[in-house]
Specification:
Layout lengths: L1 E5 L20 E4 L7 E6 L4 E4 L7 E8 L7 H11 E8 L2 E8 L10 E8 L5 E6 L4 E14 L4 E14 L4 E4 L2 E8 L4 E14 L4 E14 L4 E14 L4 E14 L4 E16 L4 E5 L5 E6 L2 E2 L7 E5 L3 E6 L4 E7 L2 E6 L1
Parallel strand pairs: 3-7, 3-9, 4-8, 4-10, 9-10, 10-11, 11-12, 11-13, 12-14, 13-14, 14-15, 15-16, 16-17, 17-18, 18-19, 18-24, 19-25, 20-24, 21-25
Antiparallel strand pairs: 1-6, 2-5, 5-8, 6-7, 20-23, 22-23
Length: about 350
């Protein structure tokens, strides 16, 4: 094992750069000779960033400041590190570990410090990250990424592999990522753009923004609306806290809301289309040349003239086939249902 530093024993070795703000690291150590393949970080009151972006020298940077953005002198930081914290950073078998522990509970949160990490590594790196007091950011990595925070947001970009993230105190943004994505928050919204593969997104505290997704997608919220577009594959989505608006969809789709109206613009229906709203109207646009089996129910179903339809169409119910039948289309609303063909 190569130990870089044990700060509660040696708080200010001369080989490290020292500073007292969040623009210049308090400590910096090169990782150029360590061929890092795994990163483990645990800190109780700071953010974590791990990046495999090309052009960056492999290194770990430590940023320290007082809680509530209090500015601390170098002497104050060194004294609090020695008295109140244990921080160890070491490399063993190509695994980087950066672990921060408090020596005791702070009766006054303002007396504590935020200890954050920025880590630059090769792209083929797996991570296990945990913090209760800040956000987590990962980009340009290929591996198994597991990360959790109860006090900040998650920002994920250009990841490939198994991605498993949790936060109870912030929003989530995931972009340009693929393979197996599983993200959950109880304290904010989720934005997902240009991702593919198996995607699972859950929030109970905000809305969903879903754009340019491909694959097997499951996205749910109980605290906001859902907007999305340009989705291919299969999407199962729902909300109890808002409406749903989906456009330019080329997929199998199940969408339901108990908190508003629903609109879906289908470029092509996959194996099925199931839409329901228990709190508003449903508007759906269907491809005019595709074979479909319609089953539509609502307080009122808007009647339209369409030569490709054969079946029964009355005020509250439509059942029949379009272009000889095909993919099932099941729509229900505690409101009006409006159908048009494009």
């Amino acid at each position: 094992m190569k130990t870089f530093l044990t700060l509660f024993i040696v708080a200010c070795q001369t080989t490290f750069a020292l500073a007292q703000d969040d623009r210049t690291p308090y400590l910096t150590k090169s990782l150029a000779n360590d061929a890092i393949s795994n990163v483990v970080v645990s800190t109780s009151a700071g953010g974590i960033q791990v990046s495999g972006r090309t052009g960056e020298a492999p290194r770990i940077e430590v940023y320290i400041r007082g809680n509530n953005n209090r500015e601390l002198s170098k002497a104050e930081i060194e004294k609090k590190l020695a008295e109140d914290y244990e921080m160890n950073i070491d490399v063993n078998g190509h695994e980087l570990r950066a672990i921060v522990k408090t020596r005791h509970d702070f009766h006054n949160w303002n007396n504590g410090m935020s200890i954050s990490f920025k880590i630059y590594v090769p792209q083929n790196v797996s991570t296990d990250l945990q913090t209760s007091g800040g956000g987590i950011s990962l980009d340009y990595l290929k591996g198994n990424e597991t990360f959790k925070t109860s006090g900040g947001g998650l920002n994920i970009d250009h990841l490939t592999g198994v991605i498993h993230g949790r936060t109870s105190g912030g929003g989530i943004r995931v972009t340009n990522s693929d393979n197996d994505i599983d993200l959950n928050t109880s304290g904010g919204g989720i934005t997902a753009r240009n991702c593919s593969g198996k995607i699972r997104l859950v929030t109970s505290g905000g809305g969903l923004e879903l754009d340019d997704l491909r694959g097997d997608i499951d996205a749910h919220t109980s605290g906001g609306g859902i907007r999305g577009g340009n989705i291919r594959g299969e999407l199962v989505t729902g909300t109890s806290g808002g409406g749903i608006e989906l456009r330019n969809m080329d997929c199998s789709l199940e969408a339901n809301t108990s908190g508003g109206s629903l609109s879906a613009e289908m470029k092509h229906v996959g194996k099925y289309l199931r839409l329901s709203s228990s709190a508003g109207n449903v508007e759906v646009e269907l491809p005019a040349k595709q074979g479909l089996d319609l089953n539509l129910r609502g307080d009122r179903v808007e009647q339209i003239q369409f030569s490709g339809f054969k079946g029964d169409w009355d005020k509250e119910h439509v059942r029949g086939k379009v272009n000889g039948g095909g993919s099932p289309v099941d729509v229900s609303a505690n409101g009006n249902v409006s159908v048009r063909f494009n």
